[in-house]
Amino acid sequence: MASISLKKIVKQYGQQAATIPGLDLEIRDGEFMVLVGPSGCGKSTTLRMIAGLESVSDGELRIGERLVNDVAAGERNIAMVFQSYALYPHMTVFENMAFGLRVRKTPDAKVREQVEATARALGLEPLLQRKPGELSGGQRQRVALGRALVRNPDVFLFDEPLSNLDAELRTQMRAEIARLHRTQGTTSVYVTHDQVEAMTLGDRIAIMNGGRLMQVGTPAELYSAPDNTFVAQFMGSPPMNIFSGQRDGTRLRTAFFEIELPTATAAALPTELQVGLRPECLSTTGTAATLNGRVEMIECLGHEGLAYLAAGDTQLRAKLAMEQLPQTGTDAVLRFNPADLYFFDTNGERIAATSVEPAGTALETAGA
Amino acid sequence: MTILNWLRGLFILVMVAIVLYPVLWVVSLAFSGGQSLALVSVPEGASFFEALRALLPLPQQWSLANFEGLLTEQPFGRWLLNSLIIAAATTIVGVLLACSAAYALSRFRFPGRERGLMLLLVSQMFPATLMLIPLYVIIVEWLQLGNTWLGLIAVYSITALPFCVWMLKGYFDSLPVDIEEAALMEGASPVAIFWRIALPLAKPAIAVTALFSFLTAWNEFILASIFMDEEALYTVPVGLRFFVSDFSAQWGYFAAGSVLVSLPVVILFLGLQRFLVSGLSAGAVKG
Ligand SMILES: Nc1ncnc2c1ncn2[C@@H]1O[C@H](COP(=O)(O)OP(=O)(O)OP(=O)(O)O)[C@@H](O)[C@H]1O
Ligand SMILES: [Mg+2]
């Protein structure tokens, strides 16, 4: 049990620009923190610094109260699950799980007892005498998990542990990891590319880009109140539509629509801005405002579908029920609630507290 | 089609005969019981076919006399023991040094690493004969290790080292670092990781380097002949040399000794075969 605190953490490889120029992140005791971000943004580097596999160039890294910048990996009482599983190929499953305990000079009887208990919890008992080469990918991942669990560490680190598994197994293992965290409550940091994993596993999610933290928050917070266009487009699938808009007095004009803004909202907005609208907030019925666009393509996903709309050079995706999907090549009129609009400045930063009040009927709408 | 197959078979047979002929000749000499190079004495005025008989690698009669003589009248057993001890010790010392050096060069970054690797390669560019005099001066005159096992063991392990280090480093480089990092996180010391993770995983490459070290020591002649001037301390190649000199031509002993000296090598190859295949190919891809 331990919290993790990163204060102004810097990672510099050689002479090049810092990979991580200064990261502040507080992970609470018992929390499941997910790190997401595009490839190369420094997720693994951050995780490996917490693990002690990578040195910290500058800043303070604490686990619990202890400053661990210079503490060896083996003395941080952290367990890590690698993407490649990293099992010891020449040892049986039992020996793999016992290795860490043996290194710590645990008495044999205790080793046996702990390994067997963990194996039982993970359903690994029938495999204990096999070598990793004789296991399937899912079983190997389970052994890697068991090896991490058996030592009862203060912190779990996961670096894309499920990305080598097929979809079904991934869902299954995801549930397993969630269950383990619920029962053990060990502080965990989990790196993934997969948004669904992030949303379902994370107590909180930290989104990184180019070595910087874009936003930290619960999945719901990130979805409903993104700080910037990067987070807005990272969370949600398909990503939020973002297009440019111009404010002229209290009127907001975009390629797809023109609406009247409440004066308070309008006052807070610059004249040039970016407007965000989630694909799932569009429909053909109901709410007040309308937008127009030419249907370029539709994709059916089963009970729902995606419509790709274009107005001039600007594109937009709408997620609609199957029966609402328009015909390709036609001009479609879709409806949305102006309260669902997000406003960002031209640098992509959210303009705080400027979502339109949910008083749809008060708004006069006009097609563009 | 069948003719082609026949031709192909014939071609292979001829090739095998060409390769095996000298070997069979040595084996026959060894079992001939005599010391003469000629296996069959061809009488004056023999017919063409009788003369042809002299070309076949078959002795007139089979006998173990050469082997008996070698082991009883000659100090061959003693030489074999010298060779075995020197080669085995060279293998152990060489492999231990090479493993630890290669592991450090593969896994750790330290000043002088690149240069050190390059230096190891450069040392391979000089022909061994160039080193004879300096080695003689160092080992025999300075260290007083002439006529000792230790002198040869030291020289052999060191000369085999550059190849072994490069071979093993290539293999360590190909092993995933994750595995060792996982062990590191479990609290294993670098030494424990080296012994309990890296070495067991590097078995194929170690087999290759061990064999290489063993053969280096087992087959070497020039240094051994310079360092050892007591007959009791000869290694097998040096001892064999004295069967065939200006003063004697005991080809039978020579051949019997050759057969005996190849046996350990053959046995080693067979024993390590499983590792050798994977080891050589791994080295081939990576090293
Ligand atoms: N040893 C190294 N030397 C120099 N640069 C490195 C080193 N390791 C990583 N980097 C750089 O640091 C950046 C972050 O790498 P990192 O592995 O943390 O990315 P990531 O977010 O985990 O990406 P992915 O999702 O692809 O795994 C990358 O641009 C990478 O090129
Ligand atoms: Mg990564």
Automatic annotation (TrEMBL), chain A:
<keyword id="KW-0067">ATP-binding</keyword>
<dbReference type="InterPro" id="IPR027417">
    <property type="entry name" value="P-loop_NTPase"/>
</dbReference>
<dbReference type="InterPro" id="IPR017871">
    <property type="entry name" value="ABC_transporter-like_CS"/>
</dbReference>
<dbReference type="InterPro" id="IPR008995">
    <property type="entry name" value="Mo/tungstate-bd_C_term_dom"/>
</dbReference>
<dbReference type="InterPro" id="IPR013611">
    <property type="entry name" value="Transp-assoc_OB_typ2"/>
</dbReference>
<dbReference type="Pfam" id="PF00005">
    <property type="entry name" value="ABC_tran"/>
</dbReference>
<dbReference type="Pfam" id="PF08402">
    <property type="entry name" value="TOBE_2"/>
</dbReference>
<dbReference type="InterPro" id="IPR003593">
    <property type="entry name" value="AAA+_ATPase"/>
</dbReference>
<dbReference type="InterPro" id="IPR003439">
    <property type="entry name" value="ABC_transporter-like_ATP-bd"/>
</dbReference>
<protein>
    <submittedName>
        <fullName>Sn-glycerol-3-phosphate ABC transporter ATP-binding protein UgpC</fullName>
    </submittedName>
</protein>
<keyword id="KW-0813">Transport</keyword>
<dbReference type="InterPro" id="IPR012340">
    <property type="entry name" value="NA-bd_OB-fold"/>
</dbReference>
<feature type="domain" description="ABC transporter">
    <location>
        <begin position="4"/>
        <end position="235"/>
    </location>
</feature>
<dbReference type="InterPro" id="IPR015855">
    <property type="entry name" value="ABC_transpr_MalK-like"/>
</dbReference>
<dbReference type="InterPro" id="IPR047641">
    <property type="entry name" value="ABC_transpr_MalK/UgpC-like"/>
</dbReference>
<keyword id="KW-0547">Nucleotide-binding</keyword>
<dbReference type="GO" id="GO:0005524">
    <property type="term" value="F:ATP binding"/>
</dbReference>
From TrEMBL, chain B:
<keyword id="KW-0472">Membrane</keyword>
<comment type="similarity">
    <text>Belongs to the binding-protein-dependent transport system permease family. MalFG subfamily.</text>
</comment>
<feature type="transmembrane region" description="Helical">
    <location>
        <begin position="7"/>
        <end position="31"/>
    </location>
</feature>
<keyword id="KW-1133">Transmembrane helix</keyword>
<keyword id="KW-0813">Transport</keyword>
<feature type="domain" description="ABC transmembrane type-1">
    <location>
        <begin position="80"/>
        <end position="272"/>
    </location>
</feature>
<keyword id="KW-1003">Cell membrane</keyword>
<dbReference type="InterPro" id="IPR000515">
    <property type="entry name" value="MetI-like"/>
</dbReference>
<feature type="transmembrane region" description="Helical">
    <location>
        <begin position="79"/>
        <end position="105"/>
    </location>
</feature>
<comment type="function">
    <text>Part of the ABC transporter complex MalEFGK involved in maltose/maltodextrin import. Probably responsible for the translocation of the substrate across the membrane.</text>
</comment>
<keyword id="KW-0762">Sugar transport</keyword>
<feature type="transmembrane region" description="Helical">
    <location>
        <begin position="248"/>
        <end position="272"/>
    </location>
</feature>
<dbReference type="InterPro" id="IPR050901">
    <property type="entry name" value="BP-dep_ABC_trans_perm"/>
</dbReference>
<feature type="transmembrane region" description="Helical">
    <location>
        <begin position="117"/>
        <end position="143"/>
    </location>
</feature>
<feature type="transmembrane region" description="Helical">
    <location>
        <begin position="149"/>
        <end position="168"/>
    </location>
</feature>
<dbReference type="InterPro" id="IPR035906">
    <property type="entry name" value="MetI-like_sf"/>
</dbReference>
<keyword id="KW-0812">Transmembrane</keyword>
<protein>
    <recommendedName>
        <fullName>Maltose/maltodextrin transport system permease protein MalG</fullName>
    </recommendedName>
</protein>
<dbReference type="Pfam" id="PF00528">
    <property type="entry name" value="BPD_transp_1"/>
</dbReference>
